[in-house]
Amino acid sequence: MKVLIVYYSMYGHVHKMAEAVAEGAKEVDGTEVLLRRVPETLSEDVLEKMGAVEAQKALSHVPVCTVDELASADAVIFGTPTRFGNMCGQMRQFLDATGQLWAKGALVGKVGSVFTSSNTQHGGQESTILSFHITLLHHGFVIVGLPYTFQGQMRVDEVTGGSPYGASTIAGGSGERMPSDNELDGARFQGKHVASIAARMNR
Ligand SMILES: Cc1cc2nc3c(=O)[nH]c(=O)nc-3n(C[C@H](O)[C@H](O)[C@H](O)COP(=O)(O)O)c2cc1C
């Protein structure tokens, strides 16, 4: 049973969440977990202006995903930072290259799930995940979120991401905040939840 975690991360927040999602998925017996980045679409020049060069170097060990890897997975968990309340362009471009898979129905019946990151608490995490689901539905994915059995999303004693739609982290106005323990717990829960549902569907 193969779980593919495919994400884009400019400054490392989504990457950290992706690692936690992977840890959770690995807790399900017999699960092979693959961690992949989508290709960068911005030029070095733009990345430098955005102050992302060092962070990108630090993430360069993660293999870049090919669209064919989507077809060979039983479940795909997508991670994207919020861009104006939507998925980032790098992820959009990656998904826009999956027309061949769509034409063959290659992703129909696979488990799909989404997690995200934004700078601000109400800056569009839910709209990012829910609008991402539209693409997954066109591909025929069976969508899985983050149920309230992950109790950490009920917390109001600290600032935290996480909603029934998926795990998330709040990066802070200038990206100074890395995912909290509670947000990482949510990511782990989502990874395990997706893997266990995919395992059940496989049986
Ligand atoms: C073009 C652009 C648009 C963004 N739009 C939003 C937004 O709508 N709401 C928000 O809270 N943060 C927004 N952000 C902040 C990113 O979501 C934030 O940098 C990201 O979640 C950090 O995750 P990463 O380090 O994995 O890239 C935006 C950033 C950029 C560069």
Would you kindly provide a written description of the structure presented here, covering whatever features stand out?
This protein has 203 residues and is an alpha/beta fold. The chain contains eight helices and six strands, in the order βαβαααβααβαββα. It has helices at 13-26, 44-49, 53-58, 67-71, 89-95, 99-104, 125-139, 181-202, and strands spanning 2-7, 32-37, 75-81, 111-118, 142-143, 168-170. Strands 1, 2, 3, 4, 5 and 6 form a six-stranded parallel beta sheet that branches. The N and C termini lie close together (10 Å). The structure holds flavin mononucleotide. Residues 9-15, 81-85, 117-120, 123-124, 171, 175 line the site of flavin mononucleotide.
Task: Write a concise synopsis of the structure shown.
The protein is α/β, with parallel strands linked by helices. The protein has eight helices and six strands, in the order E-H-E-H-H-H-E-H-H-E-H-E-E-H. Flavin mononucleotide binds next to helix 1 and strand 4.
Features:
single chain, 203 residues, alpha/beta, six-stranded parallel sheet, 16% strand, binds flavin mononucleotide
Number of helices: 8
Determine the fraction of residues in helical runs and give it as a percent range.
25-40%
- What structural class do you assign from the helix and strand content? alpha/beta
Largest sheet: 6 strands, parallel
How would you describe the shape?
globular
**Poorly predicted spans:** none
* Rounded radius of gyration (Å): 16 Å
What compounds sit in this structure? flavin mononucleotide
Strand fraction: 15-25%
Oligomer: single chain
Q: Tally of extended strands? A: 6
Sequence of secondary-structure elements: EHEHHHEHHEHEEH
Roughly how many Å apart are the termini?
A: 10 Å
Average of per-residue pLDDT values: 97
